[in-house]
Amino acid sequence: MSPGFRFHPTDEELITCYLMNKINDATFTGRAIADVDLNKCEPWELPVLAISLLTVKRTPNETSPMLLDPEVQAVEECR
Known about the structure:
It comes from Malus domestica (Apple). It is built from 2 helices and 3 strands.
């Protein structure tokens, strides 16, 4: 499982796997954590942005929700 795709990534994972890469590479785009300019959004628009970035999918045989990331087409269990 890629770092950051767990429900609660550790502080170390956030810093070493996401923030350091973001600082060192200007072209870095994180799939797990989206960048949103809060100065360009109204507060009521934020839930719409979150839904467009992440889709929750449930199948009849599952008891827990599954997360579908449309960018990488990966399905990971919620933990």
